Amino acid sequence: MAKIKKLFPQKLLSMLFEILLKTSGKLPYLRFKVSNGGLGTQFKHLKHSSFLRRTDEVADQTLVFDLEGVLLKSGSLFPYFMLVAFEAGGLIRALVLLLAYPLVLLVGDELGLRVMVFVSFVGIRKDKFRAGTAILPKFLLEDVGVEGFDVVMSYKGKVAVTGMPRVMVEGFLRDYLGIDAVVARELKEFHGYFLGLMEEKMDPGPVINQKICTHSTDLGCFRKSHDLKFFSHCKEIYLVTEAEKENWQVLPRNRYPKPLIFHDGRLAFRPTPLASLVMVIWLPFAFVLNTIRATVFVLLPYKLSVPLLALSGVITIVSNAEASITGDEKPRGVLYVCNHRTLLDPLYVTKALMRSVCAVTYSISRLSEVLSPIKTVRLTRDREKDGKMMKKLLSQGDLVVCPEGTTCREPYLLRFSPLFTELTDEIVPVAITVQVTMFYGSTASGHKCLDPTFHLMNPNPMYTVRILNKLPSWQTYDAGGKSRFEVANHVQNQIATALGFECTDLTRKDKYAILAGNEGTV
Asked: How many CB atoms lie within 10 A of CB 235?
């Protein structure tokens, strides 16, 4: 009887919440008071602008918030599970999830969530799963609403509550938003493989109580009725409505708490149900188009391949500032130093120059090396050996090198290895940008031999190649007396300025340690 009496106020509170939520769609937050077990709990209505003016008052308080309801602008979780299904499970699993989407809509939120979890995770190896830290953070950041972000970041203590499995969101919440604690369900596993089943319950008590003990006041922000069981831990509660979220703005990149420099995965678009269906319909045409484009790339001469590729939808924009340099005028070749976007960078530089050049690279698959229409040499990561080999190649003709040592998708440049500065004074920086709409042509943890295939499967991949002015002799290593680090940094800055990118001190080892958990060997 005592247990029934204790549960009765919670049931009554839940029913009251449902009624108010349905009848108050135009209010950003709902406000009412209840008494729960002798503890006074206030449900308040407070506009976003008024909330921000309370920054000084709440600076030392703890916020308990619902990730999906308060921080993310979109109300659908399907895109995140589609990313897991496609990137961690493959195309067949993604297709099964897409076919299961009508069932997800019919069975309700909780059961639909369990269906998506099962299809996306069953049979996935736990130690190989890195989507939560390498892939999902990009798409989650792009779904953060400015209004919710302002509220969450105004608090010193932050506890996130989510219906998604912990393995999907904990990396994003801790690494990019600095969340103190995450309340989420764990996935069941068997012998290192996910079973596709979540734990039945998650107990927020220990986590939230620990935060409450260290701060004076606690506040909760939620939107769903099933979150009411967490309200007893908070003194003030603000309920966000869907009507308010429809007017939210997406958080701009320059306001990210931590820059998004590295991310992995093949999908370049947000895989909503409709977008995923379009991708599935496009794939058969994409395979045929890739075959045609690759054949033109490999077999035809440059003067024929460029217009034919343009007819197939490949967009190439070339800006050439090196009119005074030709390979015939120099006893040694010219060293073209470019930033690295995909494995096709040297091919596009070759087409921009309309003459064959040799390329050196740190990581390339054997298949790509065999199929490449230009001479491609693999570097050994032995400084002395690589230096001798590159000098030999320069004595035979022009050479393309990407001193970043790995690709970077975002508007950042990784640290340039200074080895190229010791090879020659004939240095020409090349700035490259790539725009795709469906698939990324680079990967850290996937099959690198498929990088060119995924790039050419895009409907209209765009490459922009800007050949900059040759480095003046007084700014080089031998003739100018500059240090190799000064020359490398100068070239990096030149390319960054031309592209509007930002320079970093990060290296390929940093990238692969974050995205793949290794040093990037192929």
From this structure: 16
User: Can you read off the two tokens belonging to residue 480?
Assistant: 């100018």
List, as own/partner pairs, every contact residues 302-308 make where C-beta atoms lie below 8 angstroms and the sequence separation is at least 24, other chains included.
302/350, 302/351, 302/354, 302/355, 303/354, 305/351, 306/351
Beta strand pairing call for 427-435 and 462-467? antiparallel
Paired tokens of 304: 């024929």
What is the tens place of the pLDDT at every residue in 410-445? Answer: 999 999 999 999 999 999 999 999 999 999 999 998
Amino acid present at 244? E
With a CB cutoff of 8 Å and minimum separation 6, the contacts of 356 are: 350, 374, 375, 397
d(CA 120, CA 483): 52
Quick check: 334 and 327 in contact, CB under 8 A? yes
Q: Per residue, what are the HEC states of 396-424? A: HCCEEECCCCCCCCCCEECCCCHHHHHCC
Are 152 and 65 within 8 A, CB to CB?
yes
* 150 backbone dihedrals φ, ψ, rounded to 5°: -60, -45
Residue scoring higher pLDDT (331 or 391): 391
Q: How far apart are CA 522 and CA 446, in angstroms?
A: 11
Q: pLDDT (tens digit, 9 = 90+) per residue, 218-268? A: 455 555 544 556 556 666 667 777 777 888 899 999 999 999 999 999 999
Q: Distance (Å, rounded) from C-alpha 230 to C-alpha 220?
A: 8
Beta strand 193-198 with 187-190 is: antiparallel
Distance CA 82, CA 277 (A): 11
Q: How far apart are CA 361 and CA 401, in angstroms?
A: 7
Please say whether the beta carbons of 189 and 195 come within 8 A: yes
Q: How many CA atoms lie within 13 A of 490 on its CB side?
A: 21
DSSP 244-300: HHTTPPBPPGGG-SS-------SB-S---HHHHHHHHHHHHHHHHHHHHHHHHHHHS
Q: To the nearest 10°, the Cα dihedral for 186, 190, 194, 200?
A: -30
